Amino acid sequence: MTKQIYIVNGSPRKNWNTSKMCESFAKGVIDAGGYAEIINLYDIDFKGCRSCFACKLKNGKNFGKCSYLDGLTPILDKISQADGVVFASPIYFGDLTGAMRSLVERLFFPFFEYKEGYPSIAPKKLKTAVIYTMNINEELANQMYQDLFNRFEWFIEIAFSKPQRICVYDTYQFLNYDRYVCEIFDKNHKLKQREEQFPKDLEKAYNSGVKMAQEVINE
Q1: pLDDT confidence tier of residue 1, bands split at 50, 70 and 90
Q2: Angle made by CA atoms 88, 132, 143, in degrees to the nearest 5
């Protein structure tokens, strides 16, 4: 049976940085013999946790999984039974996008029991990776976002496995910088990053896809 890896794109922008990284990761998976599917969260009609606590109800039919039925329900089932999952998000206002944050609530909260150490009851310990894209440089990102990275990846590690981290820094945001108020950014520097660094980032995503596929196939 073909090993299944789902790549969750938490960006609303089609065909831009995060989306391209997802596509490159998926190509690596497929080229290595795995199955890859990209899930675009902004195409799905859903919201975050409703705080109904049905996932914590003793002997409840929805114990350990989100009970709310909407467009995200089949996605949660897919991820829970996958062999690998990638979470990809741009950084907006120092955090994951709203859609990715809502997915995190719905996916991970049911897995953590209200017991000492918050043990996970996720059905599988699948392979994981995270992709972050951001328009600041690596030095500034290390100062500002380490708490975010560590917190998000802690949930992933406890539920599934320790994720590989892939960061894309100093991203190119606009097709024409002259049309926008963005005085703090040098458009020529941004273009150079896009032309010289971003292809390397895409290659890293591709190689990570190959690696994850090989790992799940060889298990």
Answers
A1: low
A2: 155
pTM for the predicted model, two decimal places: 0.93
Crossing angle for the helix pair 98-108 and 73-80, nearest 10 degrees? 60
Dist. CA 162–CA 142, nearest whole Å: 19
Is 15 exposed, middle or buried (CB count within 10 Å of its CB: 0-12, 13-18, 19+)?
exposed
What's the mean pLDDT in 27-51?
A: 95
User: Domain coordinates of the chain in residue numbers?
Assistant: 4-217
pLDDT digits (tens, 9 = 90+) for 10-26: 999 988 999 999 999 99
Distance from C-alpha of 161 to C-alpha of 146, rounded to nearest angstrom: 19
4-217: which CATH topology? Rossmann fold (3.40.50)
State whether residue 170 is helix, strand or coil: coil
In angstroms, the CA 212 to CA 85 distance is: 9
Q: What are phi and psi of 68, to 5 degrees?
A: -75, 130
